[in-house]
Amino acid sequence: MADLFEELAASFDPVLATERARANVQRVLPKRFYKVVSVEPVGGLHRVLLDGKPVRTPARHELSVASLRAACALEAEWSGQGEFVDPMTMPLTRLVNSAIDGVSSEIEAVKDAIAAYAGSDLTCYRAGEPPRLDERQRLAWEPVLDWVNGRFGVRPVATIGVMAIAQPPKLVAAIRSALPDDPIRLAAIELVTTVTGSVFLALALLERRLLPDDVWLAAHIDEDWNAELWGVDSEARQRRDFRRADFDAAALLLLD
User: How far apart, in Å, do the first and last CA atoms of the chain sit?
Assistant: First the structure.
């Protein structure tokens, strides 16, 4: 079972993780080997137990979190497994594993990567046309840029098209300074940023300026527009559902 979680922890890209996990799950899934799942407070944290024994991450750390609510959600993921243990149905476990085994030892590098998203932030690249799509983007994204301006004292640069633009260094530095040192929350921000393509939306969620559903909808304006025009196939819908599960897990950790 550790091998399945290791494959997911090898990349912070949730799309790649989904594809890797799907390939692994098609090969083999371990049988459920436990009966009772519980949560136990220890050392200021809450760890998850299987038949009284601590769950271990792929790197053999205890699966534990500070929040009782998050611990109970982890407990529910493990309790909800059927005959086999399927990592693809355990987005919160995967995310916490990555935070404990990966992000905790790479805090500064992860902050750099998150802040760098400002240069390609989804909310700064507009379609221009057709007018209805441009209006949808403007109505959803302009308030986010207004908030960023008020929060950090620098307004992000926006453009029409996909030609890369640079954001003011002062803004990038301010965003980096706003990121938490806690690896669990930092991993959650990184995942939201990657899934949405927007560090501005991730920070708006972190600071409770937007609700999770509002962030999700704002991040999928273009995708929803194309779906209205051309429809959605089952594979695309499945990929979106996987991303939403990952997003919800991260939102739980950020808003706890």
Answer: 28
